[in-house]
Amino acid sequence: MTLLRGDALSEAFDEGSAAYDRLVAASPGYHAHLRRSARRLGLADGGAGLRVLDLGCGTGASTEALIAAAPLARVTGVDASAGMLERAAAKPRLTHVEFVHAPAEGLADRWAPGSFDAVFAGYLFRNVQDADAVLGLVRRLLVPAGRLAVHEYTLGGSPVDRAVWNAVCSTIIRPAGRLTGDARLYRHLQESVNTFDTAPEFAGRLRRAGFQGVRVLPLPGWQTGITHTFVGRTAQEA
Q: Are 101 and 56 in contact (CB under 8 A)?
């Protein structure tokens, strides 16, 4: 299939937003894994005084994970889907969060360089039209020595990883999407992972974008070899 991009993908997420939280909650470890990746940002003192960008925040599951990890940080959530943002803004724990409706690629003129101390991106990069351009934007928005954590479906490179992913999609994820009327969104989900970088490839992409200290960290359970946390930081001096 042709992957959804731009407005077509935003519209698919708009349509799927009503059932999205219910479906992901049925995935073992989904929220626990997001919380683990958010903790891997390593924000000290509960994030006191820090500005954190949740890029591709969706319905706010990643935002809740960030607040659990850094309850004192000032968090801004950005997403291209108005429907997903509406769900996020309605959550009681997120009423103090600033939400911005915009595609990641459209943020270049919204904030000055160095506007954030840390950026978290959950399930974002395989969905953008130009991952390298978005990484360049993230690096620009971060302060010197700013932190980045990416939580993403990135296959480990083993044929077994790909087989497990496609088996789970065929037997659980896509049938659930059909039941909710969101079949095209979940077809996209499956193929976006199959066609995106492997974990080593994405780590290389981060290094080429200028991030330092890049590490690839596994997640437990059935997603071992399928979902990873990537952490890195910008240079000490801008």
A: no
